[in-house]
Amino acid sequence: MNKTKTLDIVKKYTMILMLVLITAFFAWRTNGAILLPMNVSSLISQNAYVFILATGMLLCILTGGNIDLSVGSVVCFVGAIGAVLMVNKGMNMALAILIMLLIGIAIGAWQGFWIAFVRIPPFIVTLAGMLIFRGLSNVVLDGMTVSIQNCTTFVNLFGGGANCYIPDVLGNGGINITCMVVGIIATVIFIAAQIIGRINKKKKGYKLENPVGMIVKTILISAVILAFTVRLAQHKGIPSVLIWVMIVILVYSYITSNTTIGRYFYAVGGNEKATKLSGINTNNVYFLAYLNMGFLSALAGMVTIARLTSAQPTYGQNYEMDAIASCFIGGASAYGGIGTVPGVIVGAVLMGVINLGMSLMGVDQNMQKVVKGLVLLAAVIFDVVSKRGGKLIEKN
Known about the structure:
The longest helix is centred in the middle third of the chain and has 28 residues, at 177-204. The chain contains 15 helices and two strands. It has two domains: 43-161 and 240-388, ABC transporter involved in vitamin B12 uptake, BtuC; 169-236. Helices cover 73% and strands 1% of the residues. The protein has helices at 3-29, 37-62, 71-88, 93-116, 122-141, 152-157, 177-204, 211-234, 240-258, 260-270, 272-277, 282-308, 319-329, 341-361, 365-387; strands spanning 146-147, 310-311. The chain has a two-stranded antiparallel sheet with strand order 1-2. Helix 2 packs across helix 8, helix 2 (37-62) crosses helix 14 (341-361) and helix 3 crosses helix 12. It is mostly helical.
């Protein structure tokens, strides 16, 4: 096996290995507390916004390492409007949800216009957005907290209430049978997808993954899915917010890997000039990336106020950092054109495990930020160095 193949394999599985090792470390340091069913369920609920925002951030990063610094403020602004509409104005929940989504899309279109068609750097546009929408959040809420505890349907739907779990229609107490069945079905679907994908690649003459490596990978991932399912089943079952997260993951995984527009994002990040010469409207690709980011920010805003059962002017702070870090830790390139949704989810889970593990250990909040910053820096250094063929310092 030559050096290039070895490097490719290391890059492909490094974050998964790190996730396993870090989880094992915190399991040791917390005497297994991080693996308790309640904490596994909390890991999903507390980091649902990261999964959603990181998926959208990936599309921005794919276009050339661009980011969106405004997502945390947009989450706060959309959540503030939703809370005010449902509580202060007594608006119907469905209409309020529609308005929140439309506002998120409108914000994405606004920022996307300046970035895509006027060609103002994304950093400047979204930095301005971060300030604008944080200020507007304070205006909408008048600096106060708006409780949505009485909006029980909305709270439960987006994963914030005591009843925010899928009912166990197949069981009768004890371990959640419905959750177990769903986990087994998901495992079977995953295995079938791996087999069918390999058969299709063989028919089309594509290069196939080593069969031993594929079998080992499939077994490991299947084991993780089943172990995760058992832990959830031992608590209260499937959190409703997990349904939203899985919809986002599956839809965007399909878009990025199986559609023409998905390939456009990679093409623009790989070589924008060549992409434009091939007849692709690169302006539209940039616009779609930020339009989509606004949409997912609105969804994350709903999840956030549902989990916290209120809207406050301070919500969403540093959300953009969590999303960006998850992307780079999950294998997205700082230069664009490289990255996958599954990789981003691994990065988001890794960040969630670090947060939860350090919290259970009683680590100071400031030190938690230090650790997360170092992890992000290490991920980007790994990406940059690997592109230089292992050279840490670039020669002029």
